[in-house]
């Protein structure tokens, strides 16, 4: 196991009715708040009204940054920074999915920074200060509610990059707020959560049994609950188990002491930067192809994956056969729940394939399980067409 320091300051407030805690949090964080939200789902579900009354009861003046796009854009973030500076905002409240939270994080670190907030995404700078940020999560997927990552798209340059920004001070997760997530977004969320585990599970670091079993238990929990939640979107326990899995998959628990990969996320971000497709949809397509491309780097890890996660019976089979059966089981699962399986499902052909391969590797080769050059990425994309 490698050395590590683990620190996560986000207060996770989980369960039915927990939104009521927003009142006290608001009183602690200051009287002027910027509420950040997306394209209207929170208005349709009634969450907007509930949040607004709690903030007003707490005596807050509420400003709004509405219309944050899925794959949030730098231009929207800059609007939020401008409003916050003009109005002397004390803290930010994100109400929505990962895109809304990521945009809110960018605003939180952008306000006290004198340079261009894009510097945090193009690796020119790291934030030294941030406004406090609270979140009310409505979609199980990114883990953004309990980490300091943020992914923003610069649409002018067609670049989508993750930056290290700021941890939320608190995050409120009520599974009932995810009941209204549409079927396709539920599927993308499941794919994203599983992909986060894959990025941290496929590793060469030896002797990491606890991290390995944590990862496998998240995968099994998501797999067990996926079809349940798709059959009944208002199944509280299934929604709760997927929601908590999403948080645990990317709150810093899994990578401690482990060399992680993250190449597939870079590849997906490059595809989204050019075609603006849903993140989880892109991952469901690309991850199994990445697996096929790299599994020989450490076949025994893929054998373990097949046996422990997909219950593949290894008797009488070669390691290669078992590993490939595990990858096929992953593909079959994504197909079974209705995830896209090929880039063609999004009308993507090989036209910009080379451009995407370059965009996925702007700082040099990516990944650790196998270092991938732009040429490797082009091959994986070709397998994904
Ligand atoms: O915009 P609204 O109207 O709110 O609708 C959203 C949006 O259209 C809708 N939605 C969310 N909650 C809902 C709901 N609809 C009905 N009922 C609800 N309760 O779902 C759509 C997608 O929302 P979005 O926030 O884009 O989804 P997600 O949470 O999957 O976030 C994706 C973004 O996060 C980034 C991705 O790249 C992408 O930009 N990521 C962020 C990470 C992080 N910060 O740690 C890590 C991830 O790997 C990922 O890259
Ligand atoms: Zn992801």
Automatic annotation (TrEMBL):
Q: Which residues form the Fe-containing alcohol dehydrogenase-like C-terminal domain?
A: 186-384
Gene3D superfamilies named among the record's database cross-references: 3.40.50.1970, Dehydroquinate synthase-like - alpha domain
| Record InterPro entries | ADH_Fe/GldA, ADH_Fe_C, ADH_Fe_CS, BDH-like
**UniProt-listed CDD domains:** BDH
Q: Which UniProt keywords apply?
A: Oxidoreductase
Q: Where do the Alcohol dehydrogenase iron-type/glycerol dehydrogenase GldA domain residues begin and end?
A: 9-175
Name it.
Butanol dehydrogenase
Species name for this entry? Brevibacillus choshinensis
